[in-house]
Design goal:
Blueprint lengths: L5 H24 L6 E7 L5 H13 L8 E7 L7 H10 L4 E4 L2 H10 L5 E6 L18 E5 L2 H15 L5 E6 L6 H15 L2 E6 L6 H10 L4 E4 L3 H5 L1 H11 L3 E3 L2 H5 L4 E5 L1 H16 L15 E6 H6 L6 H6 L2 E3 L1
Parallel strand pairs: 1-2, 1-3, 3-4, 4-5, 6-7, 6-8, 8-9, 9-10, 11-12
Antiparallel strand pairs: 10-11
Helix pairs in contact: 2-11, 3-4, 5-6, 7-9
Length: 331
C-alpha cells in the first residue's frame, strides 16, 4: 500500500478536524428530547378509571408525565356549552394532539381546529356523525375508536329479555338531536322484531324531558327500557337512574358507570380497554402518522355488568345463566 505524503496527511487531518467540528455544532444545535403535549377534552368530570387507563397506555409506550409528556386536562363538568371554549383553549396551547372523549367533545374539537390531530373514543357511529369520511380512510384530522353502537343494540335487547323474561314492551330512550342515534334506533327496532318485542321509542332532547319520558313508560305499560348511547343522557345518568328506580323499571345501558350509579345492567365496550388502546393511536400521531391515514378501530373487549342490589329493589331474580355470563356483578 502506497504511503501518504506529509502534505496529503495534513490535508486529511484538516478535513477530519473540520468534519468533527461541524458534527459537534450540529449536535449542539439539536433540541433536547421533545416533550409531547396532549390535550384531553372531556364533557363530564375526569372519570378516574378511563383516564387512568389512557395514562397507563401512554406509560407502557414510554411516556412519562413531567419528563417527556404533558397532558392538558379540560373537563366541562356536564356543561356542554363550555366545550367549544375549552377546545379552543387547547388549540391555543398548541398541543400536538387532542384526545376527545365523546361525540360532543369531538364536535367541539373539530370546530376549533381542522389541522391539530384529534383522536377520539366514544363515537357510536363516527361516519354518520360526520367525524370521518369512512372507517377505513378517515380523510381529515380525526381518527379513533367506534363504540359499535348500532351493532350492539340487538344484543342488549337479548340480554334484557333474558334477565326479564316476562317483558313484552321495551321503551327506548334516545336523543333525536344526536345524528348517530337514529340509526341505532332502527337497529334496535330490527332486533325487537326478531325477539317479538314491542318498542316504545321516546325522544329526549333535554334533561327536562326525562321525567316526562318515564311517565310515558309507566302510562303505556312498558316492562323495561333501553338507553341509546348519547352524551346528554350520559351526563345526566344519575337522574336517569333515579327516575328508573322511582318508576320501578329495569333498564339496560351501554356503559358500566350507569350500573355503578344504580342502573340494573349494562353491556358494551370496555372503556378502560378502549382508552388504553387509544394511547397507541396517539403515539402513532406523535411519531408522524396522519389521522387521515389511520383507520378508525373497533373495540375488542366487551363487558356485561349487573347490579344485584338494584335487581333486588325491583323484585327481580336475575337468572343464573345470565349471572354466569356477567363480567362483573355489583352487590
Amino acid at each position: 500500500m502506497a504511503q501518504l505524503s506529509p502534505k496529503t496527511r495534513k490535508v486529511l487531518a484538516l478535513i477530519v478536524t473540520l468534519a468533527l467540528a461541524a458534527s459537534a455544532r450540529a449536535v449542539a444545535a439539536q433540541p433536547a428530547g421533545k416533550v409531547a403535549r396532549i390535550g384531553y377534552l372531556e364533557p363530564g368530570s375526569l372519570a378516574a378509571h378511563p383516564r387512568e387507563a389512557f395514562e397507563q397506555g401512554l406509560r407502557e409506550l414510554g411516556y412519562v408525565e413531567g419528563q417527556n409528556l404533558v397532558i392538558e386536562y379540560r373537563a366541562a363538568e356536564g356543561k356542554g356549552e363550555r366545550l367549544p371554549a375549552l377546545a379552543a383553549e387547547l388549540v391555543r396551547l398548541k398541543v400536538d394532539v387532542i384526545f376527545a372523549v365523546s361525540p360532543s367533545a369531538i364536535r367541539a374539537a373539530m370546530t376549533a381546529t381542522r389541522t391539530t390531530p384529534i383522536v377520539f373514543a366514544g363515537a357510536a357511529d363516527p361516519v354518520a356523525s360526520g367525524f370521518v369520511a369512512s372507517l377505513a380512510r378517515p380523510g381529515g384530522n380525526a381518527t379513533g375508536f367506534t363504540l359499535l353502537g348500532s351493532e350492539l343494540s340487538g344484543k342488549r335487547l337479548e340480554l334484557l329479555r333474558e334477565a326479564v323474561p316476562a317483558v313484552a314492551k321495551v321503551a327506548v330512550l334516545w336523543n333525536p338531536d344526536n345524528p348517530a342515534a337514529r340509526a341505532m334506533v332502527k337497529d334496535t327496532e330490527a332486533g325487537a322484531r326478531a325477539l317479538r318485542l314491542e318498542l316504545q321509542p321516546l325522544g329526549v332532547r333535554t334533561p327536562a324531558e326525562l321525567e316526562g319520558a318515564f311517565s310515558a313508560m309507566v302510562r303505556e305499560r312498558a316492562g323495561a327500557f333501553l338507553v341509546v348511547p348519547d352524551p346528554m343522557l350520559h351526563s345526566h345518568k344519575k337522574r336517569l337512574v333515579d327516575l328508573a328506580a322511582k318508576a320501578r323499571l329495569p333498564g339496560i345501558y351501554y356503559a358500566k358507570d350507569y350500573v355503578e350509579a344504580g342502573g340494573l345492567m349494562a353491556y358494551g365496550a370496555s372503556f378502560p380497554d378502549l382508552f388504553r388502546r387509544t394511547a397507541t393511536l396517539v403515539d402513532k400521531i406523535l411519531r408522524g402518522a396522519r389521522p387521515a391515514d389511520l383507520p378508525v378501530e373497533q373495540p375488542t373487549k366487551f363487558e356485561l355488568v349487573i347490579n344485584l342490589k338494584t335487581a333486588k329493589a325491583l323484585g327481580l331474580t336475575i337468572p343464573p345463566l345470565v349471572l354466569a355470563r356477567a363480567d362483573e356483578v355489583l352487590e
